[in-house]
């Protein structure tokens, strides 16, 4: 499925998508700590996030999307998804000054929970409509886009993650 962020033609089923998400989690848990501690907090320029802030943003994304993925299954359709100000949340949560171990553990835990929720979805759940900023999208689209968004930001930290990055 092609979405705004997701462009992998070889991943065309939910089990393959969950495997990709799991691979991204496992890779990040290893690769993040290979970065020098100073590199984790260094911003490339004044208006970009550091790798630590990117992980923090991905925590916020996971929190909001976990709620969307779970609530959309039982709420009235179309489900009106909450939006969030990502820039303000990164500042408010002060991810730049958080402990790397705690931050990565939180991020990984949220994403493991997302894999559990996705694995239990029925075809009917996947076809449910979610409204985000006046746009109606299927839950399946949102899930694929979430994984693409996650990979997009991880590539800002680690560089290109092709199909074989986890090996």
Give your account of this protein's structure.
- The chain has 167 residues and is mainly α.
- The protein contains 7 helices and 3 strands.
- α1 (14-31) packs antiparallel against α5 and α1 (14-31) runs parallel beside α7.
- The longest helix is centred in the middle third of the chain and has 21 residues, at 51-71.
- The protein is globular, with a radius of gyration of 16 Å.
- The mean pLDDT is 92.
- Secondary-structure element series: HHHEHHHEEH
Q: Care to count the β-strands?
A: 3
Unreliable runs: none
Count helical runs: 7
- What is the rounded distance between the termini? 24 Å
Beta strand %: 5-15%
Largest β-sheet summary: 3 strands, mixed
Strand order of the largest sheet: 1-2-3
Q: Helicity, in percent? A: 55-70%
Task: Briefly summarize what is shown.
The protein is mainly α and 167 residues long. It has helices spanning 14-31, 37-40, 51-71, 86-93, 100-119, 123-126, 139-158; strands spanning 79-80, 129-132, 135-138.
């Amino acid at each position: 499925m092609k979405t705004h962020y997701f462009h992998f033609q070889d991943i065309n089923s939910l089990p393959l998508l969950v495997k990709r998400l799991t691979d991204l989690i496992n890779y990040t848990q290893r690769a993040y700590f290979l970065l020098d501690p100073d590199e984790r907090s260094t911003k490339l320029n004044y208006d970009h996030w550091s790798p630590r802030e990117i992980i923090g943003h991905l925590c916020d994304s996971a929190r909001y999307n976990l709620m969307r993925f779970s609530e959309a299954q039982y709420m009235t359709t179309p489900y009106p998804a909450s939006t969030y100000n990502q820039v303000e949340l990164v500042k408010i949560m002060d991810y730049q000054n958080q402990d790397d171990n705690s931050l990565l553990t939180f991020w990984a835990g949220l994403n493991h929970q997302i894999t559990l929720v996705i694995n239990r979805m029925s075809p009917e759940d996947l076809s449910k409509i979610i409204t985000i900023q006046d746009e109606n999208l299927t839950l399946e689209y949102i899930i694929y886009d979430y994984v693409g968004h996650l990979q997009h930001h991880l590539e800002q930290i680690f560089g290109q993650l092709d199909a074989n990055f986890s090996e």
